[in-house]
Recover the amino acids of this structure.
């Protein structure tokens, strides 16, 4: 999938979060890293059709994304999106959190939706939790349900916004292992993450955002092994200081 971004800007209350961001490449597995406030989550929300940019253009496989509510639902339906803390419906069971969007958004029959949901819950080690509400699940289980919901309609691209940010190390590894399993099955994704080991070892490419711009981009192994920009060198040095 080719993603082309030209001159993307986004401002909130006079503060520019993205400042002329540009990107053009084939995306298979891409990690987006950088300091807090650098525009990572904002970029992902714009790519997901959840936020309209102040200016600039986004093209996916040569087709412009029109930030118009008449056309956005069809665009969003091609994507899977996982939020920082899952975004599950609190009043629905794990099973229904997957089934209802499949029926209401993607046109599945209830029978087919239940079959697909049960298949994923079994695969993700959640079969015994199908009837539980989100509040009855651990943080790691909630995120696994959220990922199951996102991949259930077989999206063209999965977008993950810091899916482990609220998890302890054990649950973090559970979720990252699951994402890596999806990668091995051929799922294309973009992940905003602070997990540098995953970004380096599980993602083909890596983008470093700082001050609303693409500061450095390339193959993950090269970017981590030989960072070129002073900003990335300093960012990685700070992360490794206590490791």
């Amino acid at each position: 999938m080719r993603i082309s971004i030209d001159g993307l800007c986004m401002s909130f209350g006079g503060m520019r979060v993205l400042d002329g961001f540009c990107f053009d490449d084939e995306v298979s597995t891409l990690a987006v890293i950088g300091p807090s406030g650098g525009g990572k989550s904002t970029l992902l929300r714009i790519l997901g059709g959840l936020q309209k940019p102040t200016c600039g253009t986004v093209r996916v496989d040569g087709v412009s994304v029109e930030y118009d509510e008449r056309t956005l639902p069809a665009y969003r339906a091609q994507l899977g999106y996982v939020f920082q803390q899952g975004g599950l419906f609190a009043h629905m069971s794990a099973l229904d959190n997957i089934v209802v969007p499949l029926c209401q958004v993607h046109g599945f029959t209830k029978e087919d939706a239940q079959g697909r949901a049960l298949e994923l819950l079994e695969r993700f080690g959640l079969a015994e939790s199908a009837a539980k509400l989100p509040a009855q699940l651990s943080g790691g289980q909630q995120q696994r349900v959220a990922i199951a919901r996102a991949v259930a309609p077989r999206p063209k691209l999965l977008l993950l916004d810091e899916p482990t940010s609220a998890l302890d190390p054990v649950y973090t590894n559970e979720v990252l292992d699951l994402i890596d399993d999806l990668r091995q099955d051929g799922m294309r994704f973009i992940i905003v993450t602070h997990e540098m080991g995953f970004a380096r070892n599980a993602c083909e490419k890596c983008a470093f955002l700082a001050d609303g711009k693409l500061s450095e981009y390339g193959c993950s192994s090269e970017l981590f092994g030989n960072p070129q920009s002073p900003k990335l060198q300093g960012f990685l040095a700070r992360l490794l200081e206590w490791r």
